[in-house]
Design a protein that fits this description.
The complex is a heterodimer of chains A (342) and B (381). Chain A is an alpha+beta fold. Helix content of chain A is 29%, strand content 23%. Chain A is built from eight helices and 14 strands. In chain A, strands 9-11-8-12-10-13-14 form a seven-stranded mixed beta sheet, with helices on both faces. A five-stranded mixed beta sheet of chain A has the order 1-2-7-5-6, covered by helices on one side. In chain A, a hairpin with a 5-residue loop joins strand 13 and strand 14. Chain A is globular and about 55 Å long. Chain A starts with 18 loop residues before the first helix and ends in a 12-residue tail after the last strand. By secondary structure, chain B is an alpha/beta fold. Helix content of chain B is 38%, strand content 16%. Chain B contains 17 helices and eleven strands. Chain B has helices at residues 4-19, 32-41, 43-46, 66-76, 99-104, 115-124, 141-153, 168-177, 190-196, 202-206, 219-235, 254-263, 293-296, 312-316, 340-343, 348-355, 371-376; strands spanning 25-29, 51-55, 81-85, 108-111, 129-136, 159-165, 185-188, 212-214, 240-242, 264-271, 275-284. In chain B, the strands form three sheets. In chain B, strands 2-1-7-8-9 form a five-stranded parallel beta sheet. In chain B, strands 4-3-5-6 form a four-stranded parallel beta sheet, sandwiched between helices. The radius of gyration of chain B is 21 Å and the shape is globular. The chains are: A alpha+beta (342), B alpha/beta (381). The A-B interface holds A 2-6, 9-13, 190-191, 266-267, 269, 315, 317, 319-329, 331, 334, 338-342 and B 2, 4, 7-8, 31-33, 35-36, 39-46, 58-61, 86-88, 90-91, 96-98, 100-101, 103-105, 111, 113, 135-137, 139-140, 219, 335-336, 354-355, 358, 360, 362-363.
């Protein structure tokens, strides 16, 4: 795919949700599976339910290391990730499927803690795990636990959330500070001896999203959770798919001091770090205040804030106005996040 | 915390000073951290029209010669060997691809945060050889030296380094010695200067008459340094200003320098796209040869090769624009870069390739004098 030397092979960065993931989708996956629903590349596929309504369907795999990290474990992620992919499409989850790939030698107590987290997060989200599968592979064939979750949800009549809906002047709201999931996991993996207050933000967002949608029916254009690729990836994609200039205001982008320091320590850009309990809501200007207020009334969005807007220019780029009043382009991250030495 | 009013004052003064000069002013930073700080803060977009901040050969990863990457790729293919590297080395291409691609073919390549992490891995894996790809300027070199000395003291049988450390000042002098550089002064690196001291920049000021300002990494530090540089350019009075005295003194960090002298010897090395620069590299001294991967594994000596058609040396110094290069946008792109200006995400060529069509000063240092503007419009990546 991108190597001049021998058989092209999958690299870690192909799974990073950045430019290389796009390349894999474009060159390898989409040409073979091409169809109108898949081609939209939304967080969930939107399907007719046969009775005039619409269903959302989504699937996601979780391979995080370490399995347990400050703020949660792979079980929390597996449920919240799928619930959130349904919720950002406006769907109310009907049920979740859970597939476990367990590695020989995995301590049963670890599995029990992961399943306890699955149950607890599902309760919080008001969904149930309605079907599943369990497989075991030999030592070295997987790393501890891999989880795949799929979800189905129902979309209310008339609700259309898509990058193609956004208009110049629309506002971007985020429900809280950035980067904490990715940082908590990376610190746990790379610097386990370090004690920091950084915790994963993993959380199911469906009740928050419902509150936002209810506050301004028909006025929310698009929502997405900034997971892999972070806010940078989300906004670069939004710009590409809407065709408009997305303008971020760095002075309003929320970042806790401990997250800023951790990102500096790891040599990473907070804009590119994964979140698991954040959502970016794009709302029509007339409904902005109502939506922001409704979000702030929810415990997962007390510090919700407006971080940017959709500009007039039709060049499909994302720019950020920096804290010193400068401007620069925000590009989609390449893939695997790598620390810089300089 | 940067206070916006202060930096705006500083930029306003810079605008006033540069307006009085009536010609383009080009200043060069030679430090990856300055490059990133200028990029992330959007500093380029705030500079007066006739002031450009050029990104010099300050990214130690980007200037690593292709043959050095090839040696690492070759080494990493050995079974029972763990190659440790800083993260940003993974994607720098040699002729035999990148370390990232080598890892996808099964090589055991680990990203480390410091040289000591590599030694720790050697302790944890006594049955395997651990090699540390030691890159960087005088900032990371002392850490490598300390670890090599420790490995020798503790007689580690399975640890070695492949050193491609480089020295900043010889590269700056080489750019100037080549003549005809279109620059008006240097923004000198804060971290490197903390080790090597401020006095080493003297020849640049005294012999070549270029102003030098040593600065920290906050936007305000960089803006203030540019103001000093513009004032000196206006007054035609080149001086050496240390604007980072809380960290940098004239002599530098003597302990670190002593460590470097003890472990390394100064050699001529090849910089990607810039050719061989005298006295610009650090190699392990003979008494540390058992920790030198080159010696230990009897590696074939890298075959030095020029990059065909790459004019990075001229682009970096502002003599040429990327459009003067026959390779630009053809055999040299961000995905398959030749020279350091395309390897670095903030290098001049990559900035041209990605953002020139926007016509403003978005990133890196692609703003050039007017003749280039017409051809900039034609770039459609």
């Amino acid at each position: 795919m991108n190597t001049p030397h021998g058989t092209p092979r999958i690299m870690l960065a192909h799974g990073g949700g950045g430019q290389l993931t796009d390349e894999l989708l474009r060159q390898c996956i989409m040409p073979r599976l091409d169809n109108a629903v898949l081609n939209q590349l939304l967080d969930s596929a939107i399907l007719p339910d046969g009775q005039g309504g619409r269903l959302a369907m989504t699937i996601d795999s979780f391979v995080v290391q370490p399995l347990e990290f400050p703020g949660g474990n792979i079980g929390d992620l597996a449920v919240a990730g799928t619930v959130n992919d349904l919720a950002v499409c406006g769907a109310t989850p009907l049920g979740i499927a859970l597939s476990l790939v367990l590695c020989e030698g995995l301590p049963i107590p670890v599995l029990e803690r992961v399943l306890d987290a699955v149950a607890a997060t599902a309760r919080k989200a008001g969904v149930t795990v309605v079907t599943g599968d369990t497989k075991v592979v030999g030592h070295g064939q997987a790393d501890g636990i891999f989880i795949t979750t799929a979800g189905v949800g129902r979309i209310p009549a008339g609700l259309i959330l898509s990058p193609t809906q956004v208009q110049p002047g629309d506002m971007l709201i985020i429900n809280g500070p950035l980067g904490e999931h990715g940082l908590a996991v990376m610190l746990a993996r790379e610097m386990p001896e370090l004690i920091t207050p950084v915790k994963s933000d993993v959380a199911p967002l469906n009740s928050l999203i419902n509150a936002a949608l209810a506050a301004a029916p028909g006025q929310i254009r698009f929502m997405r959770d900034p997971t892999r690729g972070g806010l940078a990836g989300l906004c670069a994609d939004l710009a590409t798919h809407s065709g408009y200039r997305v303008v971020l205001d760095e002075t309003h982008i929320p970042l806790r001091p401990e997250a800023r320091h951790a990102a500096d320590l790891l040599g990473l850009d907070p804009l590119e770090i994964a979140n698991e309990g954040k959502v970016v809501v794009v709302v029509a200007p007339a409904a902005h205040d109502r939506v922001l207020q409704a979000m702030r009334a929810h415990p997962l969005a007390e510090s919700a804030v407006t971080i940017g807007h959709i500009g007039e220019l039709r060049d499909g780029l994302c720019e950020i106005r920096t804290t010193i009043g400068g401007r620069r382009i925000v590009a989609k991250p390449y893939g695997e996040q790598l620390p810089r030495i300089c | 915390m940067t206070s916006p009013p202060i930096i705006s004052d500083c930029l306003a003064q810079l605008a006033a000073v540069s307006a009085a000069v009536h010609r383009p002013l080009r200043f060069m930073e030679v430090c990856g951290t300055h490059t990133m700080s200028a990029f992330r803060s959007g500093l380029h977009s705030l500079l007066p029209d006739n002031v450009t901040l050029l990104s010099g050969p300050g990214c130690p990863v980007c200037v690593t010669a292709q043959e050095d990457i090839d040696t690492l790729v070759y080494l990493a293919q050995h079974d029972d060997l763990i190659l440790c590297t800083y993260g940003d080395m993974l994607r720098v291409p040699g002729r035999s691809g990148t370390l990232e691609q080598a890892r996808s073919r099964g090589a055991d390549i680990r990203v480390v945060y410091s040289a000591i992490d590599a030694l720790t891995l050697a302790r944890q894996h006594p049955a395997r050889q651990v090699v540390f790809a030691a890159v960087g300027f005088e900032t990371t070199a002392p850490a490598t030296a300390a670890v090599v000395r420790l490995a020798k003291q503790q007689s580690f049988p399975n640890f070695s380094v492949l050193a491609s450390h480089k020295r900043v000042v010889p590269a700056m002098l080489a750019l100037l010695a080549a003549g005809a550089v279109q620059i008006d002064g240097f923004l000198c690196p804060g971290h490197v200067s903390a080790v090597i001291g401020s006095a080493v920049y003297r020849p640049i000021v005294d012999l070549y008459k270029f102003p030098c300002v040593i600065a920290g990494f906050e936007e305000i530090h960089m803006a203030r340094a540019l103001l000093h540089l513009a004032q000196m350019a206006r007054d035609n009075r080149p001086e050496l200003i240390n604007d980072y005295t809380e960290v940098v003194n004239p002599a530098g960090n003597l302990v670190a320098q002593q460590l470097l002298n003890e472990v390394f010897t100064i050699i001529d090395v090849r910089w990607r796209g810039l050719g061989v620069i005298p006295s610009s590299g650090l190699a392990l001294r003979p008494e540390f040869h058992s920790f030198d991967a080159q010696q230990k594994f009897s590696l074939p000596l890298p075959v030095p090769r020029e990059l065909p058609g790459c004019i990075c040396g001229q682009v970096i110094t502002g003599i040429a624009t990327p459009h003067d290069c026959k390779s630009f946008g053809r055999s040299c792109t961000p995905v398959h870069p030749l020279g350091p200006c395309m390897v670095s995400s903030e290098g001049t060529c990559q900035a041209y390739f990605k953002y020139a069509r926007l016509g403003g000063r978005w990133s890196g240092s692609f703003q050039q004098p007017t003749p280039a503007t017409a051809s900039m419009q034609q770039v459609t990546p």
